[in-house]
Amino acid sequence: IRTVIFALSRTHSDNPTVRHRIIDLTNELAGALPPEPQIEFTGPVDLVVTDSIADDIVAVAREALTNVVKHASAEHVSLVITATESLVTLEVTDDGAGAPEVKRRSGLANLQQRALRRRGTFSFDSKAGQTRVLWSVPLDEPSERVSGEARQ
After folding, report:
1. Which of 24, 46, 74, 112 is the most exposed place for a label (fewest CB within 10 A)?
2. Could you give the residue ranges of the DSSP H alpha helices within the chain?
3. Angle at the Cα of 23 from the Cα atoms of 18 and 28, rounded to 5 degrees
4. 3-state class of 85 per DSSP?
5. CA end-to-end span of the chain, whole Å?
6. pLDDT in tens, 63-105
7. 87-94 β-sheet, strand order
8. From CA 39, how far away is CA 129, in angstroms rounded?
9. pLDDT digit string (tens) for 8-19?
10. What is the rounded CA–CA span in Å between residue 144 and residue 152?
């Protein structure tokens, strides 16, 4: 309920929060996703996940959820974003058919590269009935935390 209230109170913002962007994304994909996807935000997500890291989180969430739509035939999907002052983690799980064995995994390679660019980690585990994408990056990226004095 808090997530919905927060999202509704932020709808007129020129700079939507990552929480609002994730809710918009799940609404955009709602017709193709399993009914009632579980979305959870833990920690100070909107305070510490901003700027380009928020863009990465939304892109990773989009890729992971799109893979659920394309490949999983899942009945349940869960997306959890957890933030601390130093780390943000995105976890997407589903109970679908598992990832097909394919040679080309450009979407997963893209998620891996996004994590590596930020000195983070990425894992993808899939079998019938249980697929998990886990993407985690530190929030102390120097380019994200440059102070005004350092720029002068």
Report:
1. 24
2. 2-9, 18-29, 45-48, 51-67, 106-117, 148-151
3. 120
4. coil
5. 44
6. 999 999 988 899 999 999 999 999 999 999 999 998 877 655 7
7. 38-42, 77-83, 87-94, 130-138, 121-127
8. 19
9. 555 545 689 999
10. 16
